Amino acid sequence: MAVLKEGSRPPWVGLAAAVWVQIAAGNAYTFPLYSPALKSVLGFSQQQLTIIGVANDIGENVGILPGIACNKFPPWVILLVGVCLSFFGYGVLWLAVSQTLLSLPYWVLWLALVVATNSSAWMGTAVLVTNMRNFPLSRGTVAGILKGYVGLSGAVFTEIFAMVLNDSASELLLFLALGIPIICLVMMYFIRACTPASGEDSSEHVHFIFTQAASLLLAVYLLTTTILKSTLSLNSSISYILAGVMVIFLMSPLAIPVKMTLFPSLHKRSGKLDGSSNNLTEEEVSSSQTASLLTPISSEADLGSFHEGEDVSEVDMLLAEGEGAVKKKRKPRRGEDFKFREAVVKADFWLLWVVYFLGVGSGVTVLNNLAQIGVALGVNDTTILLSLFSFCNFLGRLGAGVVSEHFVRSKTIPRTFWMMVTQIIMIVTFLLYASALSGTLYAATALLGICFGVQFGVMIPTASELFGLKHFGIIFNFMQLGNPIGALLFSGLLAGYVYDAEAGKQQGPHCLGANCFRLTFLVLAGVCAFGAFLSMILTIRIRPVYQMLYAAGSFRVAQDSDH
């Protein structure tokens, strides 16, 4: 069992380090930056490129192995695997795009991209699971912050691509192959399991607000500097200075543990004041929550007791239960800790999976084809378009955590309500794309980015609240399979086919005009309509769970019972 780091400061050091790892884990969002080079240098068709894009999504989201491993190994082991995958995967892609190695087979490049972006799954799982367990009472906020930085990573890499790497795809791939491993190797020491807080703390709330504000300022800064770079001619010195300011913004969450170190008395005084207002019952609830989160998993013992029961007759077992010698086991209820095999047979599990699949699958189709959509609709420089999507994706992820946390505590409204609202907005967004009206491209991209981000920011805490944190790693990563499956169906098969068919009619290598993606957008609008309907059903079903978990206005762990 991993030794837990105690104290109030280490979780915040881990969260600050997790910000950097999450930026690195967003490497899959760089695909639109180097996909034009794959197409031109290697001579791919649009459908071949979209199938490569599916590899990008498969690698990023197939995280079953890291989900299992996070319950068996410390976070640094999980991060080390991600380091190796990033180095070898992006290394092969760099060899191909830089033409250091010529005539690499298509399937080798496809597999290399799967390996490269699978580093995202290992890195993201390590920091997300660790920090969700370190801050179990603020899981929605933590999920929103960490997933927000992943959404922002696209803009961070775009800034580096435009201002430091001079729009060179080969240099970007080399940076991904070397830079990501360096970041994770430096940060892995600080990502560790810590003893969670035993109750609500007002200073913790202030620290989260500071972290959210810092990330929002970073997002605004990135969008502003990207627009400046695209509209003005900036020399290399100014570009490097702007990139350096970005690094300072990324370091801002470290101000919290620094403040705790310099002014420890303030934090202790705040903790004492908060602690004095809690009654004994709340402390017992928090203590039982901490114990349930940190109890080591012993599946072998569970299996052993199961097989031992096979040798005991049913009559003897009933007699033993009646006398109190044996405690009758019951299946967990929603809100308690589920094993994966217990969760996967629940209707709510599959409803959440399908709703998430429809929401992110339709959104990732646009993201994977954003460069081609922009060109088809007359935008040659798609850098601003990608930065806008990344910025709004971040707002959606961060906002989903903040807004859903507020309403779940004040009104016990299930978080999935916001998935329903955003998928209704996505219907309108896809119809805007299909109409190709003048001036609607940027507005539609901004709306879609926000709604796409909300799907991530809501699914993660919802899965932890319905099925617990004990096996959260594998449950969350199974949910994420909706992303690559959606990319395969909607992007690889639908969008790629429609684009190539229209390009064939125009008798050119590129497709121009609204018809290149119009049918795709209309299908995606129908997909989101179905998703909104299912999310409404899910919200109604799980409302009683949230009324139980948040009855007192803050998270309360469902207590085990024998009934």
UniProtKB/TrEMBL annotation:
Q: Could you tell me which Gene3D superfamilies the record lists for this protein? A: MFS general substrate transporter like domains
> Could you name the Gene Ontology cellular component terms for this entry?
membrane
Kindly indicate whether the keyword Flavoprotein belongs to this entry. no
Q: How does it sit in the membrane?
A: Multi-pass membrane protein
Listed InterPro entries: MFS_trans_sf, NFD4_C, Nodulin-like
Q: One Pfam family from the UniProt entry?
A: NFD4_C
Per UniProt, the keywords (alphabetical) are: Membrane, Transmembrane, Transmembrane helix
Which residues are the signal sequence here? Answer: none
Q: Where in the cell is it found?
A: Membrane
The record's comment on protein family reads: Belongs to the major facilitator superfamily. Phosphate:H(+) symporter (TC 2.A.1.9) family.
Task: Name the chain's protein.
Answer: Protein NUCLEAR FUSION DEFECTIVE 4-like
Tell me which species this is from. Answer: Nicotiana tabacum (Common tobacco)
